[in-house]
Amino acid sequence: MMGRAHLIIGTGVSLSVLALSGYEVTPAAVAAAAVGSLLPDIDEPNSMLVSRALPTKMLRLVQLLMIGAAGWVFFTRLAPPPWNLVLALLMISASFMPSRSMRKVIIFLIGIGLAWYGESYAPWNYIAGCLLIICTLVPHRGLTHTVYGTVAWTALLYGTTRLHGDSIWLAGGMAYLLHLLADSLTNNGIKPLPPFKWKLRFKLMSTGTRKGAKVENVCVALTAVLVVIALLRYKHLI
Asked: How high is the mean pLDDT of the chain?
């Protein structure tokens, strides 16, 4: 499914279920649901989540910084000639890599930073950093589209937010799971339990096609109905 549909379905359904179950829907729970609904696609650098977190303007800034750093390495002779020239040329070449590859590199470096330096602030940063590193190395709809990925994300939320109530980690974990279930409607489906080759797929649609758009619209409409029901019940309770 497209990112827009994942965001609406994952956020709408998870928050509605929480509200109907009697949990308080807080701004933090909304944020967790929104992130969780898009997070499985972090293994795709051009996905809605990654492209919003690392917009094109930021990539251009990184490219300019790399070119500037290459000039600094060359003119200050940080490395002895001719290695200063070789290093500068490598940095300039890297600055012109495609946006998709650039985003992967940035995510990888952020993961290293969290794993290496963040652990001293909170042990969960090490886990988050390792997950980011892994996400840059696996193919799309790989590890992040599995039961393992769902458990890891939910456990990470639980460990960091449980003191603020259950609504945050429940919303985030449920939204993540809903993303996987939505992708199981596609022709490719998902492999929820690798290394087992079994696929969960219903072959109802193909992302980006007219039929796929119709299926997405139906799912969004059903989500809207559930949200209205949740809102009416909430209004009745207050």
From this structure: 91
